[in-house]
């Protein structure tokens, strides 16, 4: 890929990193601020309350997916990406200044809820806007590699959040972290989002969007009516996301709580396990993306689904008895290696299914619905199983979701060779029904600016 390709990928990824830093620090610091917004009681109950608010943010994501997906298809990818980071900055600032239960009763929890709704709105559009932007901005034969940086940046955002947590754990007392230290990451997130706003104001639009030649009328771009013309592809996005999003949130946002709340590891060790495993995980994404550019998307998706279906139950069972860093790290890393088959390429697979005029909305809305139903509820479902005395049931739930996605991966067609400019054109419908002419690779082009 050329210099301009990498420039676009860098700007798109940097913003995505800050967005997901803000999104994930909520989960990473939840054990410290759970007691700040709710009255004294059972520790698991307080975590369930904060997890419930975490899940509520996911249910706002379909709204964000529809609204910002529409902006992305009508006004451009750049406009959508700039708007998402503005909303995220505002939400992080709200959490940073939210009053505690001792000061305002449940008023603090209400502020927390509003902030999570704004975050849900922002991230609902961010995923699709960045997935579409990274896929369109890349060289045609390197879409898997380019789109893999979405999860690289997402994971780096989480790594930075966990790294900050580790630093604070080692420089502040546990009491100080519970009292006020948990506000620090949200202040940093708000400032980081402001910097990214400036970067995105000066980013370049994708050539694919500017030269859009699909058959979607201008008045219908980014509309539900246009999306319904591709409802099969929309359903495919929901189904292929189901297993991946449950597994991803299980081994990222929920893992630290599981290791400390169920396995009995202290919070610092549990955080260090997640931090180290995620560093390796981030490095794997571009390698898997490059592999998909050579062998196709389906082999990686199928490998993930088979591995997640068969290995989730034993991995979770062994993690529960991991009593030190190395066993917990090894098992966590094994799970993340399996998930890489999904995370590294799911962005480009979804973007490759839709024509340019409805691509952002086509990725955003179905993906956000799947995340609201499965990803956002994963942590709450896990804690519900634990609180009900059936903790092992959650492992079977995760494996079952992966099994459903496996059926979809086995039945869908390959999308690697699709020409993004021809998806949706007359005689060349996109999606799993007709991914382009067999053996026809999209010609390489140099992006001008």
TrEMBL record:
SUPFAM superfamilies assigned to the protein according to its UniProt record, in alphabetical order: MFS general substrate transporter
Gene3D superfamilies per the UniProt record, alphabetical: MFS general substrate transporter like domains (1.20.1250.20)
Alphabetic keyword roster: Cell membrane, Membrane, Symport, Transmembrane, Transmembrane helix, Transport
Presence of the UniProt keyword Endoplasmic reticulum in the record: no
Annotated region (Disordered), positions in chain: 423-449
Membrane-topology descriptor: Multi-pass membrane protein
Main location: membrane
Localization per record: Cell membrane
Keyword Manganese appears in the UniProt entry: no
Pfam families: MFS_1
Major facilitator superfamily (MFS) profile domain location: 8-416
Record-linked InterPro entries: H+-coupled_symporters, MFS, MFS_dom, MFS_trans_sf, Sugar_transporter_CS
Bias (Basic and acidic residues): 438-449
Gly residues compositional bias, start-end: 427-436
Transmembrane segments: 20-38, 50-68, 80-102, 108-129, 149-168, 180-199, 234-251, 271-288, 300-319, 325-345, 357-374, 394-412
Membership in a protein family: Belongs to the major facilitator superfamily. Metabolite:H+ Symporter (MHS) family (TC 2.A.1.6) family.
The protein's name: MFS transporter
């Amino acid at each position: 890929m050329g210099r301009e390709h990498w420039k676009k990928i860098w700007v798109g990824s940097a913003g995505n990193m800050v967005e997901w830093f803000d999104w994930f620090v909520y989960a990473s610091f939840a054990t410290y601020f759970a007691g700040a917004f709710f009255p004294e009681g059972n520790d698991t109950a307080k975590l369930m309350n904060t997890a419930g608010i975490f899940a509520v943010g996911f249910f706002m994501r379909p709204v964000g997916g529809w609204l910002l997906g529409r902006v992305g298809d009508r006004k451009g990818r750049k406009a959508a990406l700039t708007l998402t980071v503005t909303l995220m900055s505002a939400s992080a600032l709200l959490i940073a200044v939210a009053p505690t239960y001792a000061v305002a009763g449940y008023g603090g929890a209400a502020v927390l809820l509003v902030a999570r709704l704004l975050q849900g709105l922002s991230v609902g559009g961010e995923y699709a806007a960045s997935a579409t932007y990274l896929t369109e901005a890349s060289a045609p034969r390197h879409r898997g590699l380019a789109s893999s940086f979405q999860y690289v940046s997402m994971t780096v955002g989480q790594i930075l959040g966990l790294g900050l947590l580790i630093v604070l754990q080692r420089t502040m007392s546990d009491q100080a972290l519970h009292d006020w230290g948990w506000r620090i990451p949200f202040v940093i997130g708000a400032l980081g989002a402001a910097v990214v706003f400036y970067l995105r104001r000066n980013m370049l639009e994708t050539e694919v969007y500017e030269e859009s030649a699909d058959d979607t009328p201008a008045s219908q771009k980014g509309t539900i009516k246009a999306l319904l013309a591709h409802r099969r592809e929309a359903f495919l996005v929901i189904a292929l996301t189901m297993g991946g999003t449950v597994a991803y949130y299980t081994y990222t946002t929920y893992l630290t709580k599981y290791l400390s709340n169920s396995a009995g590891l202290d919070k610092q060790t549990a955080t260090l396990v997640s931090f180290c495993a995620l560093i390796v995980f981030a490095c794997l994404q571009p390698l898997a993306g490059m592999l998909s550019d050579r062998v196709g998307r389906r082999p990686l998706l199928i490998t993930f689904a088979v591995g997640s279906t068969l290995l989730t139950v034993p991995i979770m069972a062994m993690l529960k008895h991991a009593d030190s860093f190395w066993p917990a790290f090894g098992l966590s890393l094994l799970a993340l290696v399996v998930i890489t088959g999904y995370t590294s390429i799911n962005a480009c697979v979804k973007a490759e299914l839709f024509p340019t005029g409805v691509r952002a909305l086509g990725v955003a809305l179905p993906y956000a619905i799947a995340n609201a139903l499965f990803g956002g509820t994963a942590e709450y479902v896990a804690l519900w199983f634990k609180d009900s005395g059936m903790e092992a049931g959650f492992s079977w739930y995760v494996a079952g979701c992966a099994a459903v996605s496996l059926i979809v991966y086995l039945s869908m067609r390959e999308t690697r060779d699709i020409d993004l400019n021809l998806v949706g054109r007359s005689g060349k419908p996109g999606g799993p029904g007709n991914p382009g002419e067999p053996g026809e690779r999209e010609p390489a082009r140099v992006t001008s600016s």
